[in-house]
Specification:
Elements lengths: L2 H24 L3 H12 L7 H25 L2 E3 L3 E4 L3 E3 L5 E6 L6 E2 L4 E5 L3 H40 L1 H23 L6 H61 L2 E3 L4 E4 L8 E2 L6 E5 L3 E7 L11 E6 L2 E13 L25 E8 L18 E6 L2
Antiparallel strand pairs: 1-15, 2-11, 3-10, 4-6, 4-9, 5-8, 6-7, 8-10, 11-14, 12-13, 12-15, 13-14
Helix pairs in contact: 4-6, 5-6
């Protein structure tokens, strides 16, 4: 076949196929058209104004929130290195013996003076009885000495009464002698020599009797002084015997163990019939007065002052907010009072922020009373101090 004939066949075939193929070629593809439209209309997110408005608003909100949080947080200082503290009273006997009475007060509240335990006494009872008897004896001696004082006073009064007559006779005899001597001086013949001698003898005799009477009065007065000294000695003896009795009472009291303070009895380690020795720990009392010891970082103490209010959260009662105030700040970090303080005079020193104990007292008037909750020493708390 010639080239012209093949060209004609191709043209004819093309005329026959063209309508079908032409129809397919003319119909557009929907998916391809959509892709071309999206690519033409899609723009970058960063070029949209709405995105930048939202971003600016979010950043502004975050910045304002951060500033407000900082302004609020800077007013407070808090730490979780804190615990309940108290002066625990540990009870120990001063004498040895067997317990004949032990109060069943485990984890119970007791008042001061409550009897907790009794040790069987032996010799102190006899010593106390002897001391009390000695006191009674000393009292009797003092009464006897007072009676002697009364008797001495009566004897002095009697001697004074008996001395009136001799003293009066001596005075009369002395006056008569003086009168006779005056007459004899004027006129020797007015008074006989014998009469003058009798007057002299009478004056001497009565003067001696008066002197003896005065001596008896002085002796009686001396007896009064002696009796009064005996009274003073008896009173001193009473004081000494009473001191002995008190000492015996104290010795006997050592066998009775009582609560020195109000609080809760804990950690009882003895029972009825237990043998105890001096210094042995029998039980302990947690006093009603407790506080919080908070170990703040030294960098947290810049604005902290005594009296600042404190909010206290106890881990055991997270829903209860106790109130308190800063009572005192210890002068010195805790490590300075350890048994073996750190020696930093070395070449490999690394600075570590130290902790300083701060004592926080509870305010029962402004908040819950911790005594109404089972709170005790060693329990963890989180105090927050308002420093600004």
């Amino acid at each position: 076949m010639s080239d012209d004939a093949q060209r004609d066949d191709t043209a004819e075939n093309g005329d026959q196929i063209a309508p079908e193929n032409r129809g397919h070629a003319a119909a557009p593809d929907p998916e391809a058209a959509a892709d071309d439209g999206d690519e033409g209309k899609k723009t970058s997110l960063f070029k949209k104004p709405k995105f930048w408005i939202i971003l600016i608003i979010v950043v502004a909100i975050i910045a304002v929130g951060a500033v407000l949080y900082w302004l609020h947080a800077r007013q407070y200082e808090s730490t979780d290195d804190a615990f309940i503290d108290a002066h625990i009273v540990r009870l120990a006997p001063q004498v040895s013996g067997t317990l004949i009475q032990v109060a069943q007060v485990d984890n119970r509240h007791v008042e001061p003076g409550r009897l907790l335990a009794v040790i069987r006494p032996t010799s102190p009872q006899a010593q106390l009885a002897e001391a009390q008897a000695n006191v009674q004896q000393a009292v009797s001696q003092e009464k006897q000495a007072e009676a002697q004082v009364t008797a001495a006073i009566a004897a002095r009064d009697q001697a004074a009464a008996q001395a009136h007559a001799p003293i009066a006779e001596a005075a009369k005899a002395a006056q008569d002698l003086a009168r006779y001597q005056e007459l004899a001086r004027i006129d020797r013949n007015a008074v006989a020599a014998q009469q003058l001698d009798q007057a002299r003898a009478q004056a001497k005799s009565t003067a001696a009797q008066a002197a003896a009477a005065r001596q008896q009065i002085d002796n009686a007065a001396a007896q009064i002084a002696v009796a009064r000294k005996q009274v003073a000695a008896a009173e001193a003896m009473i004081t000494a015997r009473q001191a002995q009795a008190k000492q015996a009472q104290v010795n006997l009291g050592d066998y009775r163990i009582t609560a020195p303070v109000a609080g809760q009895v804990v950690n009882r380690s003895v029972n009825l019939g237990s043998y105890v020795a001096p210094g042995m720990n029998l039980m302990a009392i947690v006093p009603d007065r407790m506080w919080v010891t908070a170990n703040f970082k030294e960098t947290q103490l810049t604005e902290m002052r005594i009296g600042q209010p404190v909010s206290i959260k106890v881990d055991a009662f997270p829903d209860v907010e106790f109130k308190g105030h800063v009572d005192s700040i210890q002068r010195g970090a805790g490590q300075a009072f350890s048994i073996l303080p750190a020696q930093n005079a070395t070449g490999n020193y690394v600075k570590v922020v130290q902790r300083v104990p701060v004592r926080i007292e509870f305010d029962t008037k402004n908040g819950p009373d911790p005594r109404k909750y089972p709170i005790g020493p060693g329990m963890s708390v989180v105090p927050t101090v308002k420093v600004r």
